[in-house]
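User: My instructor asked us to take a sequence, write out its structure as tokens, and then describe one feature of it. I'm not sure where to start. Here is the sequence I was given:
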Amino acid sequence: MQRPRNVLLIVVDQWRADFVPWLGADFLRTPNLDRLCRQGVTFRNHVTTTVPCGPARASLLTGLYLMNHRAVQNTVPLDARHMNLGRALRRIGYDPALIGYTTTTPDPRGTGPRDPRFTSLGDLMEGFRSVGAFEPTMDGYFGWLAHKGYALPERRENIWLPEGEDAVPGATDRPCRIPAELSDTAYFTDRALTYLKGVNGKPWFLHLGYYRPHPPFIAPSPYNRMYHPSEMPGPVRAADWRVEARQHPLLDFYLRGIGQGSFFQGAGGAATGLDEAAVRLMRATYAGLISEIDDNLGRVFDYLEQTGQWEETMVVFTSDHGEQLGDHWLLGKIGYFDESFRIPLVVKPAGVAARAGAIEGAFTESIDVMPTILAALGGEIPRACDGASLLPLVAAGPPEGWRDALHYEYDFRDVFYSKPETGLGLGMDESSLCVLQDARFKYVHFAALPPLFFDLERDPRQFTNLAESPAHAGLVKDYAQRALSWRLRHAERTLTAFRATPDGLEDRGPENRGAHP
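Assistant: Let's start with the prediction itself. The structure tokens for your sequence are:
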């Protein structure tokens, strides 16, 4: 496989896997993502190993499971000792550029409590060089708007209100008040093209982040009416949210507490108040935001082709996490359902891919992205890394001993905007779950709440919990033991390969880590 000269890592926000046309979402039009899929390998069974944004991006960029990097929620610091992709790239001569954000809270031991980065959800991960800032609080974007001559309202976020004085906040097909040429998607693309035109022939790495299709769910014209609600798949949910709430205490907490305000600028009311028509309308807007990203990616791809860089550039396209979009009556990225965790992944190697256009069904996880990029560039994959390079899968399919299940985690301790820990009467370090999921069954283990067990063949959308079923007791025990073994295999191991001997320091190295990634 040809070694890339350049790497373009595209990280969108809140794009779920079943909104990828190459994987069957024929209600969507994304010609530029399709172009990437035709020339690379698309992964059908890919998950983020945790949600929401901060923890997900920590796993993506460190290659570590949540249980090892421990930036367990938005606002929780990332330990400075962990190697990340930016720092690893610097070791092999790249100056890793970043457009967008990583939602990383810094290690407080290396700064002080008055550091302004502790007043926001997160800032930039150390090791990257920002060439198109969004964090903190979107100042980079709003400053760009002002520089362009756009008159910002007193409350800057009101650019995402529906157009028109009589507009009612909520699910709508009205456009937002900012035009498409000044949207945040346009901003990120402008920053990307500015960076690429300035690298002056040097090999480059660019993390190109997009804020969409993250809420607020409102699109600029013409994307606001690019899709009709009738084209959208309807929500997968019980007839009444209270029926779903009986499945588990954590689900009950979220169904009673999620409001529409975080998803529609200025809206009120509970998320469970969205009827099917409103959900379909919201999904049409979500699809429009996706098409807006796709059009902008086309600008970047065209530039790389026109300048002769496309063939020597590895492109990785993924999202930080998914979005419930009304399934199970939920909005956002929370809990344990697949919609929050299943995300797109496309890898186009440099040159001509041996499996161009293939859809790979092996189980892959967000922690595999970092080692894949490092392996492609000839870098050293850290011993502590929980993921494995996907290059063998891109070239020929999964090697012997590849993982036989998906693994992901969620920590629901209190943060300033959500307090399930308090609501459920749990301790901070009891508020967590882990999932082991293969093609047939899904097991959800909680530190201090009842487990869940689903038969994915008979109940693919996970309505019926079989954890207390006597007929499934043996399977529940087996999957619980597998989950425990997974955690034991992946316990933090930065220094565990080293040992003192009479002849001095010995390093047993990564070749002894075992068969499973």
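For the description part of your assignment, you could build on this observation: The chain has a mean pLDDT of 96. Try explaining in your own words what that tells you about the chain.
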